[in-house]
Amino acid sequence: MAITLRPSTLADVDAMFRVWHDAVRATHHFLSEEDIAFYATMVREQYLPTAAFTVAVDDADGAGRVVGFLGVTGSKLDALFIDPAVHGRGIGRRMVEFARAGHDVMDLDVNEANDAARAFYEHMGFVRIGRSPLDDQGRPMPLLHLRWTRGDGKHVA
């Protein structure tokens, strides 16, 4: 794989939605079909077309296929989704390292029930600093608040 990171464009929205949908299906087993439909509408119509992202593009075959995307606001990692067909190839690690560049502290929220994502972020040096019983839409999907701090590895409260 020859992965390039670049800013997203509106032309990437359909590919990013495919990555989001496939990743959610592969990793968010705690979501019902109704939950997925609820979030899918919001992601496709409100989030992906309006926010700034970094996309991971596989250029190996010349097709330039989007295989992941990352959203960061300030020092908060808002979104990281990788196509499950390329899980385990270091793309998520590379994107997190890219997001952390230039930051001394980075925060993120992860679904408490998403064991694989939580383990990945902990492996990347993030530590738990809190918990919310509801997600950002007020739904009963508990979130863990994680923080990474450059340097000695201790979190900043």
Protein described:
There is one protein chain. With 157 residues, the protein is an alpha+beta fold. Helices cover 31% and strands 29% of the residues. It has helices spanning 13-27, 33-47, 91-100, 115-123; strands spanning 3-7, 54-58, 65-73, 76-82, 105-111, 127-132, 143-149. It has a seven-stranded mixed sheet with strand order 1-2-3-4-5-7-6. It is globular and about 45 Å long. The mean pLDDT is 92.
Summarize this structure as a short list of keywords or feature phrases.
29% strand, 157 residues, 7 strands
Arrangement of strands in the largest sheet: 1-2-3-4-5-7-6
Low-confidence stretches: none
The coarse silhouette is globular
Order of helices and strands: EHHEEEHEHEE
The percentage helix is 25-40%
Classify the beta-strand content into a percent band.
25-35%
Number of H- or I-type helical stretches? 4
Distance between the termini: 39 Å
Provide mean pLDDT, rounded: 92
How many strands appear in the DSSP assignment? 7
- Helix/strand structural class: alpha+beta
Major sheet size, sense and barrel closure: 7 strands, mixed
Question: What is the gyration radius calculated from CA atoms?
Answer: 15 Å
